[in-house]
Amino acid sequence: MSGKKEKFLVRAAVYLILIKENKVLLSRRYKTGWMDGMYSLIAGHLDGNEPIGKAMIREAHEEVGIEIDKKDLIPNKVLHRKTEACEYMDFFFTVKTWGGEPKIMEPNKCDNMRWFPIDNLPKNTLPYIRNVIENLNDKVAFIESGWK
User: Fold this and answer.
1) What is the pTM of this model?
2) What is the topology classification, in CATH, of domain 11-145?
């Protein structure tokens, strides 16, 4: 009989899909050391001992300077994503209302932010982000990526 199996730990991240006039807000990664030059959503890791909703509100404020009320967060998708290095549970939210106008708040991590037509995303959008946006309204809440 073998020893006690160590529990698997997974990383968790939150993503905000801001949509205005059939356009989605994307920011281009810059000097982060991971997928620089690729477009993504407002996103970030949970800090630990932090509820998912609070993490999303914090990331929206830190990255683009907008204010979101927890009651306005709409869960859209959960993505179980496997990379070469680790596994993630990614939680995607939308909101209908927010306070403030989005602007780059972390120029050391983002060198461009724009509203793109939801049906015409830039070629350099992270593939899993593209997949989520293109399938936003398919009523499938849980998806997987990176598994063979």
Assistant:
1) 0.93
2) Nucleoside Triphosphate Pyrophosphohydrolase (3.90.79)
